[in-house]
Specification:
Elements (H helix, E strand, L loop, with lengths): L7 E4 L3 H12 L4 E4 L23 E4 L5 H11 L3 H8 L1 E2 L4 E4 L1 H14 L3 E4 L11 E4 L7 H11 L4 E7 L2 E3 L9 E2 L10 E6 L1 H13 L7 H6 L9 H6 L35 E7 L6 E4 L8 H8 L10 E3 L2 E7 L2 H4 L5 E2 L2 E6 L9 H19 L12 H11 L25 H22 L1 H10 L4
Parallel strand pairs: 1-2, 1-7, 2-6, 7-17
Antiparallel strand pairs: 3-5, 4-5, 8-15, 9-13, 9-14, 10-11, 11-12, 12-13, 16-17
Helix pairs in contact: 1-11, 2-11, 2-13
Length: about 475
């Protein structure tokens, strides 16, 4: 008689928790998935669905010679439920992988709820189970009770930074006599609405932005406020200098309004905008548009007043205002192995932004590894680490081996990948070589772990 495999507990139904629960179940191991919503709400979520995308509907560049795109491709080859569902509900976004966020989350919720090995609990679990195998995927908005228990368990304070979400606008309210449809450098399908500004308009907008009233932070947030450089509020960028936004999200390069002629033509240089605000398609119908790079902590009334100074948005109708909230993450180099197990308790694993990775795809990747290893531990198998030459392997090696003193959230990037044996001067060619090496090593790694791969494929027939 085959011994019964004990269930694994997954706490948190975000991207990491959803991916972890799916991989555990697909490996033939029962899983109990706890999601606190709707019993307890978070300051950033708007729905009760699993894997809700809070900040943006974009998973980043999808070309596999880009860091995020390579991570997408690695996860595709590892049967990631998150990336498969993102591909299923993709919307036009130029060179980015963006999704219809409502359909994306609903589909994942249905898939997990219908899986025969997943028991779905819509209630908070505010303690770390003392027995059994557990995956912590509570994200940057971990409940106060569980955060307190984690603090006691680890013996150290959380680290924290502030994250913010961009407003979403009704497409019909955008003046498309002003805004023009184009992707930067004409890359991919034209999927961004671009609102051009001349110098006078830009300077007026910046002046109003910098003087705008911000939402009041809570006392505990004031004491630990620390911005993450990869997701700065637009007003913070504005305060850093007159041209900071123009070299960031409002950069005017590579965007050409076909109605005015090609700005690259010397005769049309005078028509080139001084700055450009981009809006990315949010849903498949193109009814909703996200203000790219406009994460903000301004009061909602101030957002409406100031963002309507942008040409083409004078009558903008906002369906979601920008919000800002505190994110928390562990000092993972002192706590976690590259397998995402806690060193002091190997049956406890963690994944997602809680461990100090940044971005949707990185959270999904952490969920994949934590879920895969939780299932292996349940079956008495050795946990896996990925090759450091892969983007996934490099990312988790970084959060395990970085300096604890200066540890900050890390997005996928080629700077953490081991150097090539032979130097390639061209950055584009070098990234292509990184990609080829990564996918080759990943294929070999899968072959070397054939039992694990075969198990996943066999159990995939369950659903």
């Amino acid at each position: 008689m085959t011994p019964q495999i004990p269930p694994v507990t997954v706490i948190g139904g975000g991207l990491a928790g959803t991916e972890a629960a799916w991989q555990i179940a697909q490996a033939g191991t029962p899983v109990s998935l706890y999601e606190m919503r709707p019993v307890e709400k978070s300051p950033a979520h708007h729905t009760e669905e699993l894997a809700e995308l809070v900040c943006s509907n974009s998973f980043g560049a999808q070309s596999s010679d880009r860091a995020s795109g390579l991570l997408h491709e690695e996860l595709r080859r590892l049967n990631s439920i998150i990336i498969a569902t993102a591909d299923e509900h993709q919307v036009p976004a130029g060179g980015a992988l963006a999704v219809d966020r409502a359909l994306f989350s609903k589909t994942l919720t249905q898939k997990l709820a219908n899986h025969p090995l997943v028991t779905f609990h819509r209630q908070p679990l505010n303690h770390i189970p003392s027995k059994g195998i557990t995956v912590l995927a509570t994200g940057p908005l971990t409940s106060t009770a569980l955060a307190s228990e984690l603090q006691q368990f680890t013996g150290m304070e959380y680290m924290s930074f502030f994250d913010a979400a961009s407003p979403i606008i009704v497409g019909e309210s955008i003046d498309q006599n002003v805004a023009f449809l184009a992707s930067r450098y004409d890359k991919g399908e034209a999927a961004y609405l671009n609102c051009p500004m001349n110098k006078e308009q830009y300077l007026h907008f910046r002046e109003a932005l910098c003087a705008a009233e911000q939402a009041e932070l809570k006392d505990f947030e004031k004491e630990s406020a620390k911005f993450f450089e990869g997701c700065l509020p637009i007003e913070e960028l504005g305060r850093r200098g007159e041209d900071t936004m123009r070299y960031g999200p409002l950069k005017p390069v590579g965007l050409f309004d076909a109605r005015l002629g090609d700005f690259r033509d010397p005769e049309n240089k005078s028509k080139k905008p001084y700055a450009v605000v981009q809006l990315r398609q949010e849903d498949k119908q193109g009814q909703l548009w996200n203000m790219v790079g406009f994460q903000t902590n301004l009061k909602w009334g101030e957002q409406k007043r100031i963002f309507r100074l942008i040409p083409g948005l004078e009558n903008a109708e906002f369906v979601r205002m920008g919000v800002m909230h505190r994110n928390t993450f562990l000092n993972s180099p002192e706590l976690l192995d590259a397998t995402l197990q806690f060193s002091q308790r190997p049956t406890l694993l963690a994944a997602g932004q809680l461990i100090g990775t940044e971005g949707y795809t990185a959270a999904s990747a952490g969920g994949w590894l934590a879920g895969t290893n939780a299932a292996r531990i349940a079956k008495g198998l050795t946990p896996l680490t990925l090759p450091k030459t892969t983007m996934m392997g490099a990312l988790f090696d970084f959060i395990h081996s970085a300096s604890p003193k200066h540890f900050q959230p890390m997005p996928p990037n080629f700077g953490i990948i081991p150097a090539l044996a032979e130097r390639v001067r061209s950055k584009k060619e070098r990234y292509g070589v990184y990609r080829d090496r990564s996918l080759t090593d990943l294929a070999l790694w899968k072959t070397q772990n054939q039992l694990h791969t075969a198990t996943l494929k066999k159990d995939a027939q369950l659903v």
